[in-house]
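Hi Q.,

Before the meeting this afternoon, I wanted you to have the flavin mononucleotide prediction in hand. No need to reply - just skim if you have a minute. The sequence and ligand are here:
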Amino acid sequence: MERPAPVTIIDYHNRSKHDFGRMARSAGYLDWSNQPFPFRYYQGAEQVELALLQSDPVVNFGDLMSAKTVPACRFTLDSLAGLLELSLGLSAWKAAPGAGKWALRINPSSGNLHPTEAHLILPSTAGLQAGIYHYDPYHHRLERRALLDDSLMQELEAWFGGPGFMVVLSTIFWRESWKYGERAYRYCLLDTGHGLAAVSLAAALFGWRYSYLPGLSDEQLVGLLGFDRVQWPAREKEVPQVAGWISCQGRKAENAGLPGDWMSKVRQCRFDGRPNRLSREQVAWPVIEAASLATVKSDPSAPVCHWWYREGDQRFEFWPEVAAARVIRRRRSGTEYDASRSIPRDAFVALLDAVLPSRITPPFNAGLGAGQVGLVIFVHRVEGLAPGLYCLAPGRKLLDSLRKAMASDFNWRRVDDLLPLYLLTEGDFTRQAAELSCRQPIAGDSAFSLAMLACFGSLVSGDPHFYRLLHWQCGMIGHMLYLAAETWGLRGTGIGCYFDDPVHHLVGLGDDTFQSLYHFTVGHPLEDRRLQTLEPYHHLGLTKDA
Ligand SMILES: Cc1cc2nc3c(=O)[nH]c(=O)nc-3n(C[C@H](O)[C@H](O)[C@H](O)COP(=O)(O)O)c2cc1C
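Predicted structure with the ligand bound:
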């Protein structure tokens, strides 16, 4: 395929902005007959069926937030299956009269299009040979793409400091660009962040720990997964995003990359399986390919930026006693919110506490870098808090930068003992919040909605790979908001559609020091009673009490 004309990632970011009078370029209509199939299969690869969990791990969501020790499970085919079921598996099917049925997943995805795929490098255990596998969530099974010698996996485990396995998330851009055109690259990155958080949290339920592996270049990942030897259907290739090590002893990985000659040994493996075709025809979105190329991780030794981690501070302690697995399974996006109801202040504080990056709790303990994102919050209906515009600014450095960059007449009065939460200005922002989020009522009818302001220009022009990292961080923040909301009987919705520069203007940002990379809304949901809900694996003849 032709190499797309290069773009700088800042150019890509600017041209993929929405504004009141101009939406980012897209096809402008939905060709339903050509919608990409949401499941990838590697046809011809050996399949390994996975069991559904007989019982969920007994860990409350609040336990995860307070870093309570969870006894480490042994690595078996069943515990691996449990991790996948609770991170990237199906969560339900929805059906509507005249609209057919569609699958939902544990991880959310813009437009429910699911560009994220997962590959695993696994040691042998009963029922499983060591190898490189792709996860197929539709059938809840693994597809073996390559066999590895046991000694290779032992070498890898010794290198990372004990038993464990590797997870690599990849992306198929076409799944998102089919609907969203040029803006789709951003959504793919946010979806990766959600996937990362989902894997990291599920790992914690088994007493395992996910560590981000920054010491692997994109080129190495392509080689590792044999992607350079796959015959991809045109424009449907998978692009590796992020690699992590899951320690089955709950430890941080001891190394960031692979042992010296490990890759060259993997390169001698035979890769099996032919990827299925997802669409009849594909529309080229060269700027997305170009944005992906502009942000590759080419230097594995490039540092991850750590500004600030929450450490030693007091944390919110009064979480409702709800099993984390239940929360994970029930997570859904709210499609409408009840504008007549407010939420307790405790719930609001808990939700924001859950997104403050901690070095010891998942998903931020993955080591992806943190603290480069502040939240501008439109408080609409929170008990004991005046409606208005607020800012959650974790860490002194971020707070100072935000204060300097934003409107000079903001108040910056700290309003909470626990949280670094500041009132900017009081007022009713319900209408503006909805307007700015592409006129979506969910941003104004909720209890609060927010914009994630990432420290942008200097980081991204210094190393364009930060564009990915910042979006992953925002996806992770969104993921925590989804789950924390569910724990409180509330619901959240990720919002990728918003008018970028009008948001920046509202808070007085005049340049690209900060950019809004993701929006989110939380409140009391109104259920759509026309929809029927079906069990996640009913299509395989499997049922499970939710
Ligand atoms: C990155 C991202 C952006 C999203 N943007 C929007 C949005 O602008 N408006 C909306 O109503 N839902 C949005 N959603 C929610 C998705 O539509 C939802 O996740 C998807 O339909 C799957 O449903 P579920 O979350 O209930 O599993 C977004 C989700 C993600 C992850």
